[in-house]
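Stage II sporulation protein D, Bacillus swezeyi. Tokens?
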Amino acid sequence: MKQLFIVLGGICMLILLVPTLLVLPFQGESGMPKTNQNTVQKEEKKTATLKESPVSIPVYRTADRQVEDIPLEEYVIGVVASEMPADFDMEALKAQSLAARTYIVRQMVSDQAVQPPKGSLVDDTQMFQVYKSKSELQQIWKKDYDWKIKKVTEAVASTQGKILTYDQKPIDASFFSTSNGYTENAEAYWTSDIPYLKSVKSSWDRKSPKFLNHKTFTASEFEQKLSVTLPNSNGIGEITERTPGKRVATAVINGKKLEGRDIREKLGLNSADFDWKRKGDQIVVTTRGYGHGVGMSQYGAHYMAKEGKKAEDIVKYYYKGTAISNADQFLNKYMAKK
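Tokens:
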């Protein structure tokens, strides 16, 4: 009888242990069933999916001289792909997506300072934002097209429907390639004082391949381009004032006062932060940075992202006091006007 109880007890213990023995081989180190871990991993690998936009942008295609209606988010993809290198960090591409979408939404609902060709909202040049279609990008990127367009599309999809606002209005989301170490106050380059476009330090830009540039002119070229007469065979002129962003505000050449922006544009310089030296008949102009310097630095955004900053951190650093908002109310307003 005693042996019977021992046998029955052993059978009961075996019944209790079997479920545990069956589960253990399917558990990972965390104790979570492997099937669940696989589900978590799949969820982590999910990428944002672009939703079809009901709003289209009439874009004047300069090559064809025709207006083409392009779905909003497809337009943003074409702008981001054209304005920022696709091999930039994903968070920088997301920041560029927010800026590009904000720019076009602002065009939809604001009075335009620059008028596009009749029947369009913008053209496809840097006068507004550079835009290229997927077929054009395929010709440019060739064998790299698939991974580049996938990456840009994911950046746009992850920010879909979002724009940057200040005082509940879309901002002028100005951007440029590389700063001289500082961005610029809007009023120092343009005429308007814009509260969210203020000079901020951007030391990351020193890593940019476009940070430093040298350009050489003959003395006669220099005089002709700037409509000046050099004072003597050794001199050039004096830089008399700099902006809050450390760029040249004014310079005087043989008694003639010139604006730094005008010098940059007439000489075709990369930046308005420059110095010059004369060696006989040669004048060497050294610039720091690339672009007007107002708003978001693209290389700054890239290296901020490399340090772990998110797109929201980037845009809020370069566009002071702004918020990330839904674009729906502005898109509805635009559609109502049509």
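Confidence is low (pLDDT under 50) at residues 1-45.
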